[in-house]
Write a structure and sequence with these properties.
Blueprint lengths: L10 H9 L8 E13 L4 H9 L5 H8 L5 E16 L4 E16 H9 L7 E4 L3 E19 L2 E27 L6 E11 L12 E14 L2 E15 L4 E11 L25 E4 L2 E4 L2 E10 L7 E10 L10 H9 L4 E11 L4 E2 L2 E6 L3 E4 L1 E5 L4 E6 L2 H4 L8 E10 L1
Antiparallel strand pairs: 1-2, 1-21, 2-3, 3-5, 4-6, 5-6, 6-7, 6-8, 7-10, 8-9, 9-12, 9-13, 10-11, 13-14, 14-15, 15-16, 15-17, 16-19, 17-18, 19-20, 20-21
Length: 413
């Protein structure tokens, strides 16, 4: 009986390893994929459960959450389901996917302000700059075509994106200083917020449309099979019923002197209006979906327990908004604002008596940490695969930082 170490290979890696086989006969293939992912660099399952289901939040619990990870808290969640068809004779592929994505990043100071208010931070400045929260729901309709040249293949794909809903809250700069006993407050903030048509909250409402582009190249170098790819480089233009809010101000509050309590009215507060610069309007706006680009290398394994071994590198690109033309600076901006650290991974395939195992080890991503997983697959032409991208968190209980489940079923004829 062969010995194995079982670690899950992400959907992208599964796709790459299968695509690198240049010698398959003509076939038709249909697939169903379901993926649930919650990944964080600090916030754990205990925090998520309390926020979703309620419960008494003690000061000790608040402090634990604030001190969980880095000063910059990141969490990413995606729930997606897709159906695809591929015909190798005509080299075409079709797919439809429903995708729901939340991508957020905020500093510990924002959690301190939310949990305790500003009383405990007198003579201190709380910084909540670079806070960003983005939520998207859309359907993706994709068509791709593959060109084969001996041991090289090039695939070009395009997608139509049907946007349902988008919400974003971007704080470029933000801080709050509280003087002793709160006798003076100094606030500074630059906020951009956007939400699609608030009168249309049906799950499949059409509030925007967009396009995405795919490109991949597969080729062989001696015993190595290489895959270079760009996936889901795209955007959605949301309609003119969408609401934007922009505010940028410095504000200092030193209290209000009242000489006659009987004359207290709104006019006394005119000098302390903090939202004179608040600008809201309906307009069309462009946002981006998460794009992936990178490479993978695969070769036959000389190890007893593994058939093939692979390694690769993945980067995500998702800028906040369309504020500059495409350039090298824009590419760097999109990588930084994606909240995703470059992902390095190594994987292998082990064929066992009753099923196949796909082991991998990765570092980076939204958690910016080492991740293990577990996937088992059964069958060849007709295949069932189920797994998780975070095996280490399956046994972590309430301390788990990530939760993921992946399911794939494939029929080939």
């Amino acid at each position: 009986m062969k010995k194995i170490i079982l670690i899950f290979c992400t959907p992208l890696l599964l796709y790459s390893q299968e695509k690198l086989d240049f010698n398959k006969p003509n076939y038709n293939q249909i697939q169903w994929n379901s993926n649930f992912l919650f990944e964080s660099n600090g916030l754990n399952k205990n925090f998520l459960n309390t926020m979703l289901y309620g419960g008494y939040i003690t000061d000790n619990l608040k402090n634990n959450w604030i001190n969980l990870g880095d000063d910059r808290n990141i969490f990413y969640s995606e729930i997606s389901n897709s159906f695809s068809y591929k015909n190798s004779q005509y080299n075409i592929g079709l797919s439809i996917a429903d995708r729901n994505i939340i991508n957020a990043s905020f500093l510990d100071d924002l959690m301190r302000l939310a949990f305790y208010g500003n009383f405990n931070y007198q003579n201190e400045t709380l910084d909540f700059s670079n806070t960003n929260i983005r939520a998207d729901r859309f359907q993706q309709y994709k068509l791709d075509y593959t060109l084969n040249f001996n041991t090289t293949s090039i695939t070009i794909g395009g997608s139509f994106l049907a946007g349902n809903h988008h919400t974003s809250f971007i704080v470029n700069n933000g801080s709050l200083f509280t003087d002793t006993n709160g006798i003076r407050l100094d606030a500074n903030y630059d906020i951009h917020s956007f939400v699609t048509d608030t009168s249309s909250f049906e799950p499949f409402a059409r509030n925007g449309s967009g396009l995405a582009f795919d490109f991949s190249a597969d080729f062989s170098i001696r015993d190595y099979k290489v895959n270079l790819y760009l996936q889901d480089a795209g955007f959605i233009m949301w309609n003119s019923k969408s609401i934007t809010l922009i505010t940028d101000t410095n504000f200092s509050f030193s209290g209000i002197e009242i000489t006659d309590i009987m004359s207290l009215n709104d006019s006394l507060l005119n000098d302390y209006n903090t939202i004179d610069d608040l600008k809201t309007k309906n307009k069309s706006i462009k946002t981006y979906i998460p794009a992936n680009f990178g490479f993978s290398v695969m070769r036959p394994s000389s190890l007893e327990y593994f058939e093939t071994i692979s390694a690769g590198f993945n980067v995500k690109w998702q800028p906040y908004n369309d504020n500059s033309p495409l350039s090298f600076a824009k590419l760097g901006q999109g990588i930084r604002e994606s909240n995703y650290a470059p992902l390095y991974w190594a994987s292998a395939v082990s064929k066992l008596k009753y099923f196949n195992a796909l082991p991998t080890l990765s570092y980076g991503g939204y958690s910016n940490d080492f991740n293990l997983g577990l996937a088992l697959s059964k069958g060849e032409k007709n295949k069932l695969t189920i797994g998780t991208q975070h095996l280490e968190d399956v046994f972590a209980g309430d301390k788990a930082k990530s939760v993921s489940v992946y399911f794939n079923i494939k029929f080939q004829f």
